[in-house]
Amino acid sequence: MTRAQAEVGAAVDVPGLPRDDDGPVFAEPWQAQAFAMALALHQRGLFTWGEWTATLADEIKRAQAAGDSDNGDSYYQHWLATLERLVAEKGVASADTLHRTRDAWDRAADRTPHGAPIVLQPEDFAG
Question: Which residues are in the Nitrile hydratase beta subunit-like N-terminal domain (predicted)?
């Protein structure tokens, strides 16, 4: 079995992940974007797959300890937490910067009509 086949097999085994006849699919666009960011950062050498899998496993364990039902519906929340953690640990962006950006995004999304592109403005970062 190749590594790619093993990775696909592992994803298929996660309960609760949406899937079609070909296998797992993304339930929300942000999930696909988080997936793509992880691949891009790995390809640029920010982290190894070993670092990724260890950090993802740790994030899942943390969530379970905090009461996550671990039924698969929060999988990409763990994926995003892993991304944020590795970016902060590697010094690409501080945890504070990540939180400020997430809050700015939330403010911009709140004022954006459904279906329109979300555009960040300087005032979104003012808090």
Answer: 18-104
| Distance, CA of 42 to CA of 121 (rounded, Å) | 29
The token duo for 96 is 């504070």
In angstroms, how far is the first alpha carbon of the chain from the final one? Answer: 50
Domain boundaries, the chain: 27-103
User: In this model, does residue 26 exceed pLDDT 80?
Assistant: yes
The reported pLDDT for the residue numbered 23 is 73
For residue 57, the number of C-alpha atoms closer than 13 Å in the C-beta half-sphere is: 7
Q: 119-123 — which CB contacts under 8 Å span 24+ positions?
A: none
Tokens of residue 27, six digits: 């339930």
What is the CB neighbour count within 10 angstroms for residue 116?
A: 8
Q: Where are the alpha helices (DSSP H) in the chain?
A: 3-12, 29-43, 49-65, 75-89, 95-111
Continuous segment of H or E residues that includes residue 19: strand 19-20
Residue 122 DSSP class: G
